[in-house]
Design brief:
- The protein has 268 residues and is an alpha/beta fold.
- Helix 4 runs parallel beside helix 5.
- It folds into 2 domains: 119 residues, Elongation Factor Tu (Ef-tu), domain 3; 130 residues, Rossmann fold (3-Layer(aba) Sandwich), CATH 3.40.50.80.
- Strands 1-2-5-4-3-6 form a 6-stranded antiparallel barrel. A 5-stranded parallel sheet has the order 9-8-7-10-11.
- The protein is built from 6 helices and 11 strands.
- GO terms for molecular function: oxidoreductase activity.
- Belongs to the SIP oxidoreductase family.
- Pfam families: FAD_binding_9 (PF08021), SIP (PF04954).
- This is Siderophore-interacting protein.
- InterPro entries: FAD-bd_FR_type (IPR017927), FNR_nucleotide-bd (IPR039261), Riboflavin_synthase-like_b-brl (IPR017938), SIP_FAD-bd (IPR013113), SIP_fam (IPR039374), SIP_rossman_dom (IPR007037).
Length: 268
């Protein structure tokens, strides 16, 4: 969040179902006109009151808002508009009625109930680590939570790029409308079990050592994928990115701790 610390106010101007399992919220605000074209695909922090709503103006002294991280899927700087996508399959009635720091559920509950005119504060944006995709083979891996981010990376690929894109989705209707370079092969994994994605990726034969890898998904799956590439001596620091966007059964606050501990023990 260092590149842009100013909190930005935005209002919901549209809410729509992109696919059966993906909800899009379109936000508009004058503060968003300050963004840069390079912020497309960057991450933002949505701010919530600990009680679950978005009015953080009346918080107790010393109390901090709950922050949830999402990616900018679409950006219109002139209009001050951004689109943010939320995976809907995580929603259930119990989650929506039991929102607190321990149980989580802040962002997806808000997204599924948001109405035009609702206000929210946003921190950021920040940008994920860029990697060098100039390699003999490019491999991009994402589950549904990382579709907005990997879409931005796909757009960066050279038209001559060769490699693979792995994406885990709930149904065929959730598949993004990507245009891939002719040399890139799309692998779709259906289901909501994180290790299904890891199993698909680890069946890939690594026959070239000059490999660029971008991977973002659930924590346990990410670790298994990272270990596989490491065991095959395919990881190059400047051409590799591994990140977990969530951990099954853990809130984002708990995931931050686990992610920090993992970063301290690994090079990526």
């Amino acid at each position: 969040m260092k590149p842009n610390r100013k909190l930005k106010s935005a209002a919901v101007i549209a809410t729509l179902s992109l696919t059966p399992n993906m909800q899009r919220i379109v936000l508009q605000g004058d503060d968003l006109k300050e963004l840069q074209t390079t912020d497309l695909g960057g991450y933002i922090k949505l701010m919530f009151h600990p009680d679950g709503h978005t009015d953080i103006s009346n918080m107790a002294e010393g109390e901090r808002p709950v922050m949830r991280t999402y990616t900018i899927s679409e950006l219109n700087i002139d209009k001050g508009e951004i689109s943010v996508d939320f995976v809907k399959h995580e929603v259930n009635a119990e989650l929506c009625s039991n929102i607190d720091r321990e149980s989580g559920g802040y962002a997806i509950s808000w997204a599924t109930q948001a109405s035009v005119g609702d206000l929210i504060y946003i921190g950021g944006p920040g940008n994920s680590q860029n990697i060098d995709f100039n390699a003999n083979r490019c491999i991009l891996i994402a589950d549904m939570t990382a579709i907005p981010a990997v879409s931005a990376k796909i757009a960066m690929l050279d038209k001559e790029a060769v490699g693979d894109v792995f994406v885990q989705i709930t149904s065929q209707k959730d598949l993004p409308n990507w245009t891939l370079p002719d040399g890139m092969t799309l692998h779709t994994v259906f289901g909501n079990v994180p290790m299904q994605l890891a199993e698909a990726v680890t069946n890939l034969v690594i026959d070239r050592q000059d490999v660029a890898i971008w991977c973002a998904c659930e924590f346990t799956a990410m670790k298994a994928i990272r270990t596989y590439f490491n065991d095959n001596d395919a990881i190059q620091r400047s051409k590799s990115y591994f990140s977990s966007y969530w951990k099954q059964g853990v809130t984002e606050d708990g995931h931050k701790i686990i992610k920090r501990e993992d970063a301290d023990s690994e090079a990526f």
